[in-house]
Design a protein that fits this description.
222 residues; 5-stranded mixed beta sheet; 9 helices; 46% helix; 10% strand
């Protein structure tokens, strides 16, 4: 098994820092700019701009990040009852060259419409079973996808398809535009950025997201 490439210490400090404890569920949310979220100086055009009344919620993630894995259950719960005006988009962030296969893994599954088959099992295999080679070794990744019932050859081709290359370039552009230096990060309406460190816990990240969706859709008095 190939040795897992070392990620620069500075990047890890940003991406996977120790996080504060969860706030009490009884606390009334009083989310403030500069505390639980920041506002981008230059808003980024959203992929849902043409959908009137819809607010885009983007999650930047990397399969190898333990805090992205920690946020996943909160996202899954939020998706069950998300605001009707919210549109959710995952964007795998290739913040370092050795993160790129993980981004391709997601986009290849998306292009084949097998995201639901791959996403959680791949996360679990990496963080529960410590199969880090799945995002460093293409052969291991393709074999894993095949074991999930995904056409292995189709998946291998998709990893380097024009569609995936286009999506990957776009994701790299978005990371720069969002001015994000670590994952996970959640961007609402192309202008508000929050993360676990700012919000205080995975659950509160999604509370902040709901607050910002309401704010952007005009349903909040804030």
């Amino acid at each position: 098994m190939p040795k897992f490439p070392l990620i620069p210490a500075v990047l890890l400090a940003f991406a996977c820092a120790l996080l504060p404890a969860t706030a009490s569920a009884d606390e009334a949310p009083a989310f403030k700019e500069g505390t639980e979220y920041t506002v981008l100086k230059t808003p980024v055009a959203t992929s849902t701009a043409e959908q009137s009344g819809k607010v885009e919620v983007v999650e930047l993630f990397w399969f190898g990040c333990p805090h992205c894995y920690r946020l996943e259950p909160a996202i899954q719960e939020w998706l069950k009852a998300r605001p009707e005006e919210a549109v959710f988009v995952r964007v795998p962030a290739a913040l370092a060259p050795n993160w790129e296969l993980g981004a391709r893994a997601y986009y290849a599954a998306l292009s084949l419409d097998v995201e639901d088959k791959l996403h959680q099992p791949l996360f679990d295999a990496i963080h529960k079973d410590r199969k880090l080679a799945l995002i460093t070794d293409e052969n291991a990744l393709v074999s894993f996808a095949g074991g999930l019932g995904i056409d292995a050859e189709a998946y291998r081709k998709a990893l380097h398809s024009f569609d995936v290359e286009t999506r990957l370039r776009k994701s790299k552009q978005l990371v720069v535009q969002y001015r994000v230096t670590g994952v996970p990060a959640v961007i609402v309406a192309g202008k508000y950025v929050t993360d676990i460190a700012m919000a205080g816990s995975p659950a509160r990240v999604m509370d902040v997201v709901n607050f910002l969706v309401r704010k952007e859709s005009g349903k909040s008095g804030s």
